[in-house]
Amino acid sequence: MRRPRGSPLPPGVALAGCSFPTAPAPRATTLPGVSVRVVQYRSDIPLRHVQLEVVNGSARTVVVAAASLRGAGWSPAPHWSDDDPAEIRAGTTVDLPAALTTASCEARSPLSSARLRLPDGSTRTVRAEDSHGTLARLHEQACFAQAATSTATIVFQGFRPEGRTAEILLDVRGGPDVRRGLVVEQVLPTTLLSPRSGDETWRVDRRLAASGTVRLPAAPTRCDLHAVAEDKVGTVLPVQVRLADGRKGTIDAVAPKALKDRVLAWVVRACGNT
């Protein structure tokens, strides 16, 4: 008869001849030789993803069902999971895409480690690295964008082809503190779009204290088909702004899928590739 732990034995019951199961040894909470590196590829930028690169420096295969970062300044923590676990053979690395969440801007804690969940449901804590400062940079940008949103958001809203040139329309949509105003200082070119004037950037220097539109005359940056075929960030426009309190930063104005396709088709036509 099974009894609760710690209850006394009834009178007359002897211990002799009784066998008790041995408690299983505790499982290791780490994976020696395994670590996680944070990287971001160009294709991740419009998706707001990073890659959790699991590096298996051990001598055995590791199977991972889920992975997440700890102490990286995002809430909830960026994580990857899949019904089909990732198999990382000894001596190899595997990239696991993780979406960026909401930046915790009040008090950012440094990246400390990563947590890996194995197919049996157990978890392991491993060392995490951000050697290129990717998370720190993204966190700074996200916190600036959060601060700017109370004044306005900037959206890549329209695109008007004009033969070999075009006009880009950025909508500045006022937020609750729009009357404080912000200054759109300049917009940086991309791998696909550049100022029609031939200048290095679109100089705007325009203060907006209400919703409005910023118009950018554009021309193709490059005309080789390889640039179009391999494009990842050509329709992500970096907009440099200054807030009313003097802070400066960059907000990415990302074209939606349908608009991106129009831009790509226009570049091909404008370059005479059709």
Characteristics of this structure?
274 residues; mainly beta; Immunoglobulin-like; 2 domains; 7-stranded mixed beta sheet; 4-stranded antiparallel beta sheet; 3 helices; globular; disordered N terminus
Please give a structural write-up.
This protein is mainly beta and 274 residues long. It has two domains: 31-140, Sandwich (Immunoglobulin-like), CATH 2.60.40; 150-270, Sandwich (Immunoglobulin-like), CATH 2.60.40. Helices cover 13% and strands 44% of the residues. A seven-stranded mixed β-sheet has the order 5-3-8-9-1-2-6, with no helix packed on it. A four-stranded antiparallel β-sheet has the order 10-11-15-13. The longest helix has 16 residues, at 134-149. The chain is globular and about 60 Å long. Mean pLDDT is 88; it is low at 1-26.
Please report the total strand number as a whole number.
Answer: 17
Please tell me the CATH architecture of the largest domain by its name: Sandwich
Query: Helices and strands, in N-to-C order?
Result: EEEEEEEEEHEEEEEEHEEH
Query: How many helix segments?
Result: 3
- Report strand %: 35-45%
**Would you tell me the overall average pLDDT?**
88
Looking at the structure, the CATH topology of the largest domain is Immunoglobulin-like
**Stretches where pLDDT falls below 50 for ≥5 residues?**
1-26
Helicity range: 10-25%
Q: Numbering strands along the chain, what is their spatial order in the largest sheet? A: 5-3-8-9-1-2-6
Shape: globular
CATH class category label of the largest domain = Mainly Beta
The class by helix and strand makeup works out as: mainly beta
Cα gyration radius (Å): 27 Å
Number of domains: 2
